[in-house]
Amino acid sequence: xxxxxxxxxxxxxSVQPPVARLNLRIAPADLAAASAAFGLPLPGKIGQGxxxxxxxxxxxxxxxxxxxxxxxxxxxxxxxxxxxxxxxxHSLTVISDREITIAIVGPRAQELLSVGCPLDLARMxxxxxxxxxxxxxxxxxxxxxxxxxxxxxxxxxFPHVSELLDIATRELAAGx
Amino acid sequence: MTHFxxxxxxxxxxxxxxxxxxxxPDAQPKKEYDVIIVGAGxxxxxxxxxxxxxxxxxxxAVIEKGWLGGGNTGRNTTIIRSNYLYDExxxxxxxxxxxxxxxxxxxxxxxxxxxxxxxxLAHNVHDVQSFQRHIHSNRLNxxxxxxxxxxxxxxxxxxxxxxxxxxxxxxxAALQMRAGTARxxxxxxxxxxxxxKRGVDIIQNCPVISIRRGADGSVEGVETAKGFIRAKKxxxxxxxxxxxxxxxxxxxxxxxxxxLQALVSEPIKPIFPCVVxxxxxxxxxxxxxxxxxxxxxxxxxxxSYSQRGGLPLIExxxxxxxxxxxxxxxxxxxxxxxxxxxxxxxRSAILGKTPxxxxxxxxxxxxxxxxxxxxxxxxxxxxVANDEPHKLNAPFTLERFTTGxxxxxxxxxxxxx
Amino acid sequence: MLLIHCPYCxxxxxxxxxxxxxxAHIARPADPSKLxxxxxxxxxxxxxxxxxLHAERWRHINGCGRFFNALRDTVSDRFxxxxxxGQPRPDVxxxxxxx
Lengths: 176, 417, 99
Ligand SMILES: Cc1cc2nc3c(=O)[nH]c(=O)nc-3n(C[C@H](O)[C@H](O)[C@H](O)COP(=O)(O)OP(=O)(O)OC[C@H]3O[C@@H](n4cnc5c(N)ncnc54)[C@H](O)[C@@H]3O)c2cc1C
Hints:
By secondary structure, chain A is of the alpha+beta class.
């Protein structure tokens, strides 16, 4: 048996270290309060992202945001939102452990993703994120750069998604 | 019309097969009939045959917008079984099985009914429990159905992937031995030929545009592309198009029409001895006598009359088949097609009278009415002839959606082939 | 594969991200116990199932998560338009004139 290829010249697929990951639901009219609590102006349009230091946010739905921060900041963030709750109703759910992040980097990253993702990835701008599918598993797809993506996938679907990425990486490496 | 026999085959073989006569005449409509049946699928043609044979009503027209058997009858994957959960369904489908048994002889036409066994795979604990409940319920109704262990399922169908590490592990299966397949076109042709022989007019390329009602509300006949045709009794048996036709008579139906797709592979030598269904992964498969693997799935998700369906569903189905039968991984698929199936809220058929005098309906067979063909035809004829339902189809009324006496096969099985 | 325009994302996306959710504009009766059995049947079970234009609900379930409505031709499967939940059924003649 050949050793599994996780990386070749065209692509590197790697599991990322844990982050603080939160799901925010709030009325768009109250976005300023949420931005203040998180310490980053949250983007207003579905798909858009914003980042400052290790804080990042992406708008996934009309009233839904995905927030990322350093693990060490998680408690401070939830505390800030808890304080805001008195005046601004919202829901903030810690989902740090629910998902695993896979980074796919390299000139052929987009090609690899097209194996399981139905989106027209050429239209996806760097800095944006979308909830979508990867071969029937729901994921959040983040595009960091022209040749850099992250997939956030629920823990229970991780084996399926990561195995498919492995197979597809090997196929690309073999020139199939 | 020639009677088919070994002798007639031999005689025609010796004369270069040049002397076969047409199987049924292509009739032009008369002004009036005793009964008009809308839709020349297996159900409609069969009903005409039984009206003539069992009730002596021969002044009958079957009116078809395209060619006979060109609807779902000629598009389906031909699974025949009767192991449904509820008493009403089991009895209805078992009645059909009884008729299938003798149909080739009765019609003097080889419909190739093959009792090769239908095996339904259980992939999880819920499946196991639900299938065992079906088996117990079927046995109480005298319907054949039995439980197979994983090893027994593998022995019955060797291409099956029985690895416990499979994506869809097989935890056992329900097997109905009396179940199997038949040649779909032959069913339509056999009924058409036998009905025509008894005087029934089969009128093709003649869409029914609307149903005309008289001043007292009762049926007067049908408007068609070939003009108005009078009849005091009209039976609509138009599968996916039923609600559109019924609407023209002022009857709104609890039906929605969805595309259902199927596909076949390149032909190969006999490898697949039975029919296998997996409700959980929404795929089923058998091998035709031509050698093609015949593969089907669930319906597309949206209401449509496009008779086409989308590719995502085919991808899903083929992926599932490759998981359950890895041996077929490299096979090429030849063609795919779709039919429009009429689905009721409880996934059981509607077969009976309607609020309109003289108007009868046979519909809602959805994804699984081929197996019912002789039974539905027989009971529709009975209902039309007697102006009341037979006791086997009495529960399958339109009123059940008002009274709440549903026959909820929808809850009993995710799909209903 | 159908391409469906999500009015919330304002983007046209593959069918795989969406779930069909039945006929649109069927309002739940305000006081069900006042209804006759026939009226209740109509609400629960009777659907228009037209050959032609159909107002229907979709959910962008593998995307922004929202329910919205669409007008689609059930013979060609072509979408005429999609619109946000809560909006009335658009006037078709106007839509066709705009094309
Ligand atoms: C892909 C597929 C796979 C299936 N697999 C199975 C299976 O494995 N087992 C099973 O039991 N069932 C299966 N079914 C379901 C089965 O095919 C149907 O339930 C059954 O064939 C219905 O028979 P029918 O005679 O009522 O309808 P049809 O054969 O559809 O006949 C109705 C006829 O009415 C005609 N018609 C419609 N409108 C008009 C009009 N206005 N005027 C005149 N004529 C009109 C149509 O052209 C059609 O010929 C499948 C269906 C499909 C599409």
